[in-house]
Amino acid sequence: MKDVGWDDLHVFFHVAEAGGLSGAARALGLSAPTVGRRMLALEQQTGQALFERAQTGYSLTPAGQALLKKVRAMQAAARPVQDFLSAQRDRPIIRLSAGTATAMFLADKFGALSRSGDNFRLNFVTSEAVLDIAHREIDLGIRNRPAEGGNLASRKLGVLRFAPYRSWSVPRPELLDWVAMDPVYARHPAARWLHDQDLPIAVRANSVATVHALINAGAGIGVMPCMIADCDPALSRAGPIIDDLTEEQHLVMHDDDRHLPHIRCLIDRIVAVYDDNADLLAGARPLRG
């Protein structure tokens, strides 16, 4: 006997419960002839007569009654899975895009962005590239400029400042050269700034996270956003804030989606996180330097 599919058993259940093809067809959104053909096919697969057919309807044979009992047990066992999947469908995913440093900052504030009982889930999309919100490649994006054209809207979040940092434990910091992003991957002005200066570069990396790790390891001095480096007890400022790199961050969104309740909820929470940490973002909380 070939394996019997759950779909056919589901149809069988409705025919058994309705006592005929018409009632089952209405419940399933199928035609009565289609339901009838599937029950014939199910009987052929099982090798047993499941129904006694009459003008008054379908009644179950002993084999049909035994199968119905098992199908009901299967349905009861499957209910928690169905409820789980239904709940997941009812909780939309919000895709939030940000560069590496900003994504690290927001991940650290996850408890303020996502709460028990929320009707949405978060998907952090970490990328230095500008993703397409207008065509819904993502839902929300944090950028260093407001929305430009298209069916987009934006909201100013706050001022972000950058400074040079080194490992505080380096015994001779005056001997350190610099850690820089590889120019091929240096999309952000802070990543490109170092290459425009007449400074010795000791080592390069292709990601912000690796630059951070190299600075921590004592490989050199690097430019970092204050919101990340000033929270790292392993780092010390190696100079003043670089005013030329000061920028404003903006939350960009699709204009048609920004009033959706779950999107609006997350927007308000992101704005609150930026308001609560304005001094950290602006470089006013140095641990040492």
TrEMBL record:
Residues 4-61 form the HTH lysR-type domain. InterPro entries: LysR-type_TF_proteobact-type, LysR_HTH_N, LysR_subst-bd, WH-like_DNA-bd_sf, WH_DNA-bd_sf. Belongs to the LysR transcriptional regulatory family. Keywords: DNA-binding, Transcription, Transcription regulation. One of its GO terms (molecular function) is DNA-binding transcription factor activity. It comes from Paracoccus tegillarcae. SUPFAM superfamilies: Periplasmic binding protein-like II (SSF53850), Winged helix' DNA-binding domain (SSF46785). Pfam families: HTH_1, LysR_substrate. GO terms for biological process: DNA-templated transcription. PROSITE patterns: HTH_LYSR. Transmembrane segments: none annotated. This is LysR family transcriptional regulator. It comes from the Bacteria.
